[in-house]
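Q: Could you fold this chain for me?
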Amino acid sequence: MLGQTYMDAVITPHRSLSERGFIILISVVTLANCCSPFFLAIDVLAIVVAFLVSFSAARRVERVTITARDVVVTHEAPNWSRVVWESPTAFTRVSVVREDNRTVGLRLALSGKQVDVAQALSPRERGEFAKALEKAIREARRERG
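A: Sure. Below is the predicted structure, expressed as structure tokens.
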């Protein structure tokens, strides 16, 4: 059956501070600034803006879907979705860039075009994802063959 999905991976960026931790941090910074001159309140504003941008980026994910027919990479956020790569599974290659036994890059390639995937993962996780990606493509090709 050509409709089977061999991989549907969602890659999310790592964030070390939860929203609750953010509220606690902002409360402490605000209290500290209340004891200092008023112009230092700009610090609080800068920190709030930086974390809002960070939380917004954390909601963006990368989805890699492999079927017997095609490989699709989509960038998604709560309000939008954009396909950044689509290629036939039969001709898609996985390119792994390694340095010092670490996976520093992972790309999908076809006819001179390529796209980086799994950039949000650590080198170890990227290496494991590369193996799973190659296996899924191999199994999808086998179905078509």
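A (continued): DSSP finds three helices and seven strands in the chain.
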